[in-house]
Amino acid sequence: IGLIHEYLTPLIGDCAMIHSYEHHYGYVYKDMREHMAKARRNIKPLIRMIKEDPTNLHWCSQLVQEYMACRLDSNLYSFCGQVLEKIDKIDDPEINRVRADFYCGRLVASNGLYDYDGTIKDFNIFRKDRRNNEICMANLYFLVVIAYFQQKDFSHVINYGHKYLDIYEKWKDYDDLSERLNSVGSLTTKYIFGKKKIITLVGLVISAGIEEKETDDLFRYFDILSDLYSDGSQYEFTWGETINAISEFEYDDRFVR
Predict the structure, then answer these.
(1) CB atoms within 10 A of CB 13
(2) What does pTM read for this prediction?
(3) Cα–Cα distance between 73 and 64 in angstroms, integer?
(4) Tell me: the pLDDT tens digits for 2-45?
(5) Sequence-distant (≥ 6) Cβ neighbours of residue 8 within 8 angstroms
(6) Exposed, middle or buried: residue 30 (CB in 10 Å: 0-12, 13-18, 19+)?
(7) Residue 94 needs a FRET pair 20 to 30 A away by CA distance; which of 173, 214, 241, 248 works?
């Protein structure tokens, strides 16, 4: 139990995921303004808890989450760097899982500061860490795709977009997907296969493919999108790119279907 958050610590031994709901409305917001105010309120108590219990990385992950929510990118960038330096030499399964919060927080901060060179530089360091699991890597790929797209480096958008999608397609059909993401993902990375993230990633890769005159894989992307929403709203982000594909390339009735 902390000053602002609580979390369960399992006993030693085998654990089971129980499909029961506990209703908690403390983080249900009327609007973004209320969300930001709650996140800002949480920052000072978290800093205090980290000073009092510096070995508890859970509070560090919580602070990363609040910095992200408040878009305090400079604070986020510096804090992630401090934590990564502290845990750099540690090879422990739990710390390896949580390290993703600070790798990804660093890239989120660089993107937020429009330092896309910094994002790419850090990514090329972080991606080589053999302690990373697939969910960490999927998050790193997602964030660096954004940076490469902003720099109009479309070949790298396609390359790392494919790597993200390869992981997604491997994971998406697990019957126990939410349990797996909770056990393998960290506080800020376990939502990497949320529908909005998939739509964003696919839209960027489609745009990059059109810029590079590569249409062979475009149909794969539309197949991925088709599974997300029954009302077709997932295509709103990519509709312009679809029209470009139809107009710029030789006629292919797969675009029309």
Answers:
(1) 5
(2) 0.84
(3) 10
(4) 556 555 555 556 666 666 666 554 555 565 566 566 678 889 99
(5) none
(6) exposed
(7) 173
